[in-house]
Design a protein that fits this description.
323 residues, alpha/beta, TIM Barrel, eight-stranded parallel beta sheet, two-stranded antiparallel sheet, disordered C terminus
Length: 323
């Protein structure tokens, strides 16, 4: 099947509603992009935006503040195409020491988040309300800062994930956190509570549902991981980085990035993403942005039990109301 046919199928309704019956809860797919501050990686974001257009997917895109400051036109283009804008630390990915939100003080975290927020707002003219912590290194202090800075949604808690030395998540503090969206406890991110922040954990089957895992293990194994998650949750959060679609020699990486992570970078990975999106559609998922589900389709008034409310069968992305 050619890319044109595949993209045409990707915008068809997932399933027809039976007349007179309440709709069944849908399976939600979140296509998220982490824009680290890696000079040269912006070319990969431009390619990803083209694929999103082809599949009519609206992504949630997390920008490191320095990325937004350096490429403001690209940030505005993401907003123009209907994508959700978020932040991803201030200088994550830079040559300097990386930001660790697990251990940094309240004042330091507030400075990082404020600078990143201001950079995205200056570039796009809107204030971001979703956040993903660099390396998924997060703590209860981060939640407090996000609340006070007016954020509505976070996607950082590494539930059910442990990289066994291959990635950056090598701690088990939040392994047992809920895999579905929830309002965390302000004292323990592992537990539901009454925070104003909605947590949407990145999906994991021990290893993360991201492009690094896909290009390492291959699509058949990745599909089995997705099926395993689908038996336990109706939410699937995938993430990738623009730099993964650009040859490593054309980018500037921090010394902390392993050679293993640099292998296999290049435009060929775009085909992997296309095949993945075709599979996601065939599996019956509805693509949505993070705050769309968090604010409209989940009953979040109950902090312990979350219930699906009135999910309608829809195309792979339902366009937001006309502005």
């Amino acid at each position: 099947m050619g890319s044109t046919d595949r993209s045409r199928q990707a915008v068809l309704p997932i399933a027809e509603q039976e007349s007179g019956r309440a709709p069944k809860p849908g399976k939600q797919f979140y296509f998220t992009i982490d824009c680290d501050w890696v000079p040269g990686s912006h070319v990969g974001l431009e390619s990803l935006l083209e694929r999103c257009d082809r599949f009519r997917i609206k992504a949630t895109i997390f920008f490191a503040g320095r990325f937004a400051e350096t490429y403001p036109d690209l940030v505005r283009e993401c907003l123009h195409r209907g994508h959700q804008l978020g932040t991803h630390g201030w200088a994550h990915g830079a040559l300097e020491e990386d930001e660790d939100f697990r251990n940094a003080s309240y004042e330091q975290q507030r400075q990082w988040i404020r600078r990143a927020t201001d950079a995205v707002e200056k570039a796009a003219g809107i204030r971001p309300v979703v956040f993903r912590s660099p390396n998924l290194w997060i703590g209860e202090t981060t939640l407090r800062v996000l609340e006070e800075e007016g954020y509505r949604c976070d996607s950082s808690v590494p539930a059910r994930r442990f990289d066994m030395g291959f990635g950056r998540v090598h701690y088990l503090t939040y392994f047992g956190a809920p895999r579905d969206p929830y309002r965390p406890s302000r004292n323990n991110l592992n537990r539901p509570g009454d925070s104003s922040i909605v947590e949407v954990p990145p999906s994991s089957c021990l290893f993360p549902i991201n492009l690094a895992t896909l290009r390492t293990l291959g699509l058949p194994t990745f599909q089995r991981m997705i099926r395993w998650i689908g038996q336990r949750s109706r939410h699937l959060v995938f993430y990738c980085h623009p730099g993964e679609f650009v040859p490593a020699a054309k980018q500037t990486f921090p010394p902390s990035m392993s050679k293993w992570n640099r292998r296999g970078m290049g435009p060929n990975n775009l085909l992997l993403v296309e095949n993945l999106l075709a599979h996601i559609h065939a599996a019956g998922y509805v693509a949505t942005r993070m705050t769309d589900t968090a604010t409209r389709q989940l009953d979040l008034t109950q902090p312990v039990v979350l219930r699906a409310r009135g999910l309608q069968s829809e195309p792979i992305y339902r366009e937001e109301r006309q502005r």
